Amino acid sequence: MSDITLSYVITTYNKLDYLRPVLENVISHRKPDEEIIVVDGASKDGTAEYLAQLFATGKIQKFVSERDFGEGHGFNKGMLMAEGKLIKLLTDDDAYDFTAIECCRRYMLEHPQIDFLNTHGGWYDINLHNEIFVFTEVYLQMLQEWKEKGTPFAFCMLGIMINRKSLPFLGLLNPSIKRADAEYSLRITSQKVKVAWYLGPAYARILNQQSNSARYEETIKKETEKLNSFYEVSIDGETDKKNISFLDMVKQRLRKGYHSLQAGEKNTAEGSLGENGSAPKSPAEALEYATKWLAGQNKEVTYSFISNIEDQVVV
């Protein structure tokens, strides 16, 4: 029986400049009872050689570099390689708060009946602005509606932590679509799953030119229409009585240039800006900037969760 409590699963493809600082951060926070698994889609930028070196020195525990069918396929391979009781999915170009992840790991181990956990997260477009804001408050409204009416809802899965023993019930990601997180979250919330939500931001999504949402924008729009029709929902549709869509809300916040955890609550991101007040442009600078922001956000949020285990609230 494996003694590993948590498996980090990271997928990547031709993004070594982004992967390197992200992976170094994960390695520095890995505990002895955790493992790091990296699935590379046969990159041609030196990623395979970099991963082989990390594996040889014991800094990562498993890796594979071979052609695949995209991010969903890569995550599936990594989850099937995982030995941990819990699986934490990570991307190769976003920032994570490992204090928050540790809180989530501890909560999941204390409540083994939970199938999966998700968290709040930040939004940071390095090409448009210096500000980072929490964009996931609306998910709590959707979560409440799901609990009351069983309405499935889509959410960003950068904060997700999966109970590995629940995989036969939850299933794997659909490797045939680009918006795999939306399809997966709709599919699992269309079932009677046990869910927990950490009330702090455990990640910051760093949008860049190589992000899937930028590279496959038109494909994702078509997939969204199909998902809306199949699940009878409105992804990116109405979020409140003012008929403001989720995407419109994000755009408004980008224009206003602020970030908040609660409505009307303003915060200042820690860390220095780029030259002349511009946003950091390099992957390493962007990661450091977003990581410092996350640390500042989570100072006020420690071990705060909600779940549908008898409407449990843990603060």
Question: What would your notes on this structure say?
Answer:
It is globular, with a radius of gyration of 19 Å. Helices cover 38% and strands 18% of the residues. It starts with 5 loop residues before the first strand and ends with a strand. Helix 2 (47-56) links the parallel strand 2 and strand 3 (62-65). The chain is built from eleven helices and eleven strands. Residues 239-245 and 254-276 have low confidence and may be disordered. It has 315 residues and is of the alpha/beta class.
Indicate the topology.
Elements: E1 6-12, H1 16-29, E2 34-40, H2 47-56, E3 62-65, H3 71-81, E4 86-90, E5 95-96, H4 98-110, E6 116-125, E7 133-134, H5 137-149, E8 161-163, H6 167-170, H7 180-189, E9 195-207, H8 212-215, H9 217-231, H10 246-256, H11 283-297, E10 305-307, E11 313-314
Parallel strand pairs: 1-2, 1-4, 2-3, 6-9
Antiparallel strand pairs: 4-8, 5-9, 6-7, 6-8, 9-10, 10-11
